């Protein structure tokens, strides 16, 4: 990897051992350089893995979308049947007009029995909504992964061999503070959540699709998918109730933060409602006193 100077962890450990004798700004630069290499390489490796999975998942999902989106359109067979039915009605009514001696048949009567416009089935709409949403989320995750790798590359360009170690350290500190201020680490942690949500939506769409095809297959697959989603839900919710639980994925961390924020938000809403009620009570009291006092 170019931004990490193609060094392995063992090589960086050897370099760190060799730079232990450095002092001053040279030692500080070497230390933070090794620290940033380790941290940013972890982020970059995660994004590489995410890109590979997002590509495979999008390819699989596209194969399903190609098969399901025609369900939103009338088939050629239905259109042909409608045209044949309309033609038969026109022929029957034309012969009836000839036999009865009526010179012409009102055009409105020929169209009275025309079929209603095509309406896709509810299951087809649900399947395509889930599949297309899942596809968009997987592509969004891939796009964010590419952007994050660009952010990492930009961040790691703070060390310049043409600058003094002190200047490099100051530039790195400025970028590190910006990295923390803009919560880039939190943004990186949310990207895998896009793929998790996309996977869940895809599995739900598969269940609905199978229920429209065969009940036995649908029951078997639904049991497996329900069990899988139940395990994922348990792993995601456990850190909310057990602080030392190690199952802390980005989604689990989001739930933990939300569980901490909900009591504060509820207290804020309660205090605001109490304050608003007190103000309204005071206004009503002053209004009644002015009305009856006068």
From TrEMBL:
Species annotation: Phanerochaete sordida
Name of this protein: DUF6535 domain-containing protein
Basic residues bias spans: 1-11
Domain of life of the native organism: Eukaryota
InterPro entries: DUF6535
Region (Disordered): 1-21
Annotated ranges, domain DUF6535: 25-212
Keyword match Transmembrane: yes
Keywords, in A-Z order: Membrane, Transmembrane, Transmembrane helix
Keyword Transmembrane helix applies: yes
Membrane-crossing residue ranges in chain numbering: 50-69, 90-112, 124-148, 182-210, 216-242, 254-279
């Amino acid at each position: 990897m170019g931004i990490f100077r193609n060094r392995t962890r063992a090589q960086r450990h050897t370099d760190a051992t060799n730079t232990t004798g450095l002092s001053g700004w040279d030692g500080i630069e070497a230390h933070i350089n090794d620290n940033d290499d380790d941290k940013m390489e972890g982020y970059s490796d995660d994004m590489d893995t995410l890109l590979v999975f997002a590509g495979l998942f999008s390819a699989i999902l596209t194969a399903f979308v190609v098969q399901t989106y025609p369900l939103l359109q009338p088939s050629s067979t239905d259109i042909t049947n409608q045209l044949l039915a309309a033609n038969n009605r026109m022929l029957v009514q034309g012969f009836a007009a000839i036999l009865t001696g009526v010179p012409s048949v009102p055009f409105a009567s020929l169209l009275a029995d025309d079929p209603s416009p095509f309406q896709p089935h509810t299951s087809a709409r649900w399947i395509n909504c889930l599949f297309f949403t899942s596809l968009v989320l997987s592509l969004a995750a891939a796009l964010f992964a590419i952007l994050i790798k660009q952010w990492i590359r930009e961040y790691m360009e703070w060390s310049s061999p043409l600058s003094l170690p002190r200047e490099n350290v100051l530039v790195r500190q400025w970028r590190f503070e910006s990295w923390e201020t803009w919560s880039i680490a939190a943004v990186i942690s949310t990207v895998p959540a896009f793929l998790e949500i996309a996977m869940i939506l895809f599995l739900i769409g598969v269940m609905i699709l199978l229920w429209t095809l065969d009940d036995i297959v649908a029951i078997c697959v639904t049991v497996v998918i329900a069990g899988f989603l139940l395990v994922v839900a348990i792993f995601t919710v456990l850190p909310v109730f057990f602080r030392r639980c190690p199952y802390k994925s980005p989604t689990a961390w989001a739930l933990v933060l939300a569980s901490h924020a909900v009591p504060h938000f509820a207290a804020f809403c309660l205090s605001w409602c109490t304050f608003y009620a007190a103000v309204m009570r005071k206004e009503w009291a002053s209004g009644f006193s002015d009305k009856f006092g006068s």
